[in-house]
Write a structure and sequence with these properties.
By secondary structure, the chain is mainly alpha-helical. The protein is 84% helix and 0% strand.
């Protein structure tokens, strides 16, 4: 445990002692903030038009759900933005070690490869959690000025956490394959995009094949979380995805050790 914490603390300090963490968090909050403003403004305007129309026709105003019409859209957009920002978090984890030559010190130290991988993965997840935590301000404002349901908000954040952790796990893996941070980030992004595309293709093929493809899609499993539905099969899927990414990272590092580089 002490060795894991040593790696974890080292990586967390490297994030927050440089501009990397602050730039990524700032840009993520900026773009999510812009979409939050646009989505909520659109929802408020729709509510006003619906109320005016109801008054004109002397009808009861329709019941409009802020979770369905605003929060769900925000979560879906956040899941997309994460695919751009999280590869920036993971690209340096092992690529930088290889480029600077410190990977040899890491491999010959008493720290095991598993401890190293879990420490780096946990540090990246910590930065990701900080990104999500700051977006809770948007939800707090909605609870102050509106009446959203808490359940779908919590499940939405759980879904974002599992989805982002899946991105990070494979980001760690691609970082072990190269000493070029740009290549590591680009490879992670293409990989994420591929599993997004599976969901899009599933709607264009036969129902049987479409069901199989959608079961592998990262974003299809997130949809229920955004709707407030907590299904264990989606949790198992993401945990399996994370485990696979970390396992491949372990195999890649072990392979590098046996090859002597």
């Amino acid at each position: 445990m002490r060795k894991f914490l040593a790696i974890y603390n080292r990586e967390v300090k490297s994030y927050f002692s440089s501009p990397i963490a602050y730039i990524i968090i700032g840009l993520f909050l900026l773009i999510t903030g812009v979409f939050y403003y646009l989505i909520v403004t659109s929802f408020v305007q729709y509510c006003m038009r619906a109320d005016m129309q109801a008054q004109y026709y002397r009808m009861a105003p329709p019941k409009l759900n802020v979770n369905v019409m605003a929060i769900r859209n925000l979560f879906q957009n956040m899941s997309l933005f994460m695919s751009f920002f999280l590869p920036m978090i993971t690209m340096r984890l092992y690529s930088d070690e290889k480029k600077t030559g410190t990977i040899e010190l890491l491999m010959t130290s008493p720290i095991t490869n598993l401890q190293s991988i879990l420490g780096k993965f946990s540090a990246a997840v910590t930065l990701f959690l900080a990104m999500l935590a700051f977006t809770s301000v948007y939800m707090i404002l909605l609870f102050i000025y509106g009446n959203p349901e808490l359940g779908p908000v919590l499940t939405g954040y759980l879904g974002l956490f599992l989805l982002g952790s899946s991105y990070i796990a494979f980001g760690v893996f691609f970082s072990t394959l190269t000493d070029n941070q740009i290549i590591a980030a680009a490879s992670t992004f293409v990989f994420i995009l591929f599993f997004w595309a599976i969901g899009w293709v599933s709607a264009m093929v036969s129902p049987g094949l479409g069901h199989v493809l959608s079961s592998f899609s990262l974003i299809e499993h997130f949809e229920d979380f955004a709707k407030g539905v907590l299904d264990t099969k989606h949790i198992v899927y993401y945990l399996s995805f994370i485990t696979m990414g970390l396992f491949l990272s372990f195999v890649s590092i072990e392979s590098s050790r046996w090859r002597g580089r």
